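Posting for a labmate who doesn't have an account.
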Amino acid sequence: MVNDGSKTEQTPIFKAVSELATILTHEKNRGKGAALKTGFEYIKNTFTVPYVVVTADADGQHLPEDIFSVCEKAREQTGCLVLGSRRIGADVPLRSRIGNGMTRFIFRLVTGKGIYDTQTGLRAFSSGLIDDMLSIEGERYEYEMNVLLYLCRKNISVKEIPINTVYLDNNSSSHFNPIKDSFRIYREILKFSASSLFSFVIDYGLFCALMALTGMTVLSNVSARIISAAVNFLLNRKFVFGSHEKLILSAAKYAALAAAILILNTCMLKLLIMIGLPYAAAKILTETIMFFFSWTIQKLFVFKEDKT
C-alpha cells in the first residue's frame, strides 16, 4: 500500500493495516502515477518472478471479488494488461459519465482501439510488464492514460473484464480534479494530432502564398506539401510516435506514404476547385480528409513498432 502524502487524519487507517500490508510512504503528495511506480519498484526489487501485480484505488470502488477476478485473468494470460471495466449507466455520477464517454471516444479516434473504461484504476499485469510500467512517463492521473497509449503503440494486448460499478457518496472521496487532471490526460492524447496541425499551418500558409504569386494549383500544392511533409516526418518520428527505427527505413516508408497522399491530395484539390469551390476552402476540406487517412497509415505502418 502506498501512502501518497495523506493528511494526518488518515494515519489511523495506515496503522490499522500495517500488520497486514507493507506501507510505502511519500512525505509529500507526488500524484497517483508516482505512487503506482513506487509500488512497482518495491515489487520488482522484493519478489521473484513470475508474479502478478494488481492495482486498486483506495476509494471503495473495487470489490474484493473483482480484484481477485482481474488477478486471475492476468495470471492466465501473461503479457497483457487486464482492466476491470465498469459499465457506465444512469446510476453513475454525471461527471464520471461525461469524463468516461469523452475519453473513450477520443481514445478510439486517436488509437483505433476500443477500450470501454479507459479510466478504471483496477488493473492487473504479469511480471513481464513491470519494466514497461516503470518506464512510462507521468506522475499523476495522466500516467494511467499514458499506459494505455504506450501499450497500444507497442501492440501489447489490453483485455477488459466486467466488474461491479460502485460509487460511494456520489464519488465524493475521489481526488480527481475534473479540469486540471483532465487537461493532463487529454494533453497526452492531443500531442498525437498537434504535429499534424502544425504541419498543416505550414502547408496552408505556403500554399496560399504560392497561389497568390503564381496562380498555379499543382505547383503551389506540391511545393507546400514537400516542405510541410519533411517537418511532419521529423516531428512524428521524434515527439509523437517515439520511433527508434532506423531513420532511412522510416523516411522511406514515410516518403512512400507522402507520395500517395500527394497524388490523392492534389487530385481532390483540383477537382474541388474545378467544381467551383474557392481554393482556400477546398484546401481545408481536402486536408481534413487526408489528415485521418495519413494518421491511420502512419500509426499502423510507418512508425509501427514491434511488440518486442
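Reply:
Got it, the C-alpha cells are right above this. Confidence is low (pLDDT under 50) at residues 168-176.
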